[in-house]
Request: fold
Amino acid sequence: MDTSSVKKFIPFLVIPAFLVIVELGSLALSLPVQAAGLSAFQNPQSLADPLLFLAMILGFTAVLLVLIKYGLKNVIVWVIGASIFFTFVYTFMAIVPTVIGPGDTQIAVMIALSVIATALMYLYPEWYVIDALGLILAAGVASIFGVSLGTVPVILLLVILAVYDAISVYKTKHMITLAEGVIDLKTPILFVIPKKRSYSFIKEGIGKIGEGEERSAFIIGMGDLIIPSMLVVSANVFTGGVKYFGFVNLPALGAMIGSIAGLVILLYFVTSGRPQAGLPPLNGGTILGFLIGWMLIGFV
Reply:
C-alpha cells in the first residue's frame, strides 16, 4: 500500500478512535457525574423523558434554522456559544472535584476552565482544538444523559432519533441546511478530520455538503458520537453483570462493539461523497450490541 493510500485510510481509523474515546470518557465520568448529582431527568425509567429530549432537540433545531434563514449569524454564534459554555460547566462540575478535592475554589476553577475552553473553541477554531475539547464535551454530555435515562428509555430515544435523522437528511434535508450553516460560521459543534497534514479549518473550512462535492476534511457531528455513548453509559449503570476490566459490564461492552460496527457501515457509505444520516447505522449497531451483551449475562 503506497503512502497516499495510507493517508486516505487514516481518517477511517481516527473517527472510530474518537467514538471509543468518547465512550470510555463517558464511562469514566459516570461515577463523578452521579456523585455531583448531575441528572437531566428526575425518573430515569420514565418513557416520557425520551419525548422531552426529542422536543428539546426539535426546538433547538427550529431556532437555529430560523436564524440561518434570516441571516442572523451573530445570534447563532451567541446561542451555540452559550450552550457550549454551560455544557462545559456541567462537565467540569464532575471532573474538577475528583482532581482538586473539596474546597471553596471548585466553583471558580469550573467557571474559569469553562470560559477558557469555550474561548479557545471560538477564538482559535483550528481542527485539533475543536476535536480535543469536543471529546471532553461529548463525553460529559453522554455521561450526564446516560446516567439520567434507564436502558429502555435510552433505546426508545435512539430509535426515535435514528428515524428523525434519516428523515431530516434524506427527505426534508433540513439537517444538511443546518450543518452547512454551522460549518460556514465555523461553529465548533462537530469533529473535523483532515485529509492532509497541511489542512487548516480556520483558513479552508469544509466546503459545501453537496452531493459529489470533494471536501478537504471529513466531518461528523458531535451528536453522532454522543447518542450511542448514552446507551453505553446507561447499560453500565442500570444493568447488572460482572464488571470487566474493572469498569464495564457485558451490555455496555456489547453496545460499544455494536456502535463501532455501525460506524464502520456508516463510513463505508460516506465514501460515496453523499451526505449520510449517521444515527441509523450507529444507533442500530449500538442497540443490537447491547441486546447481545445483555443476553450473554446469564451465560458467563
Remarks:
- The first strand starts at residue 190 and ends at 194.
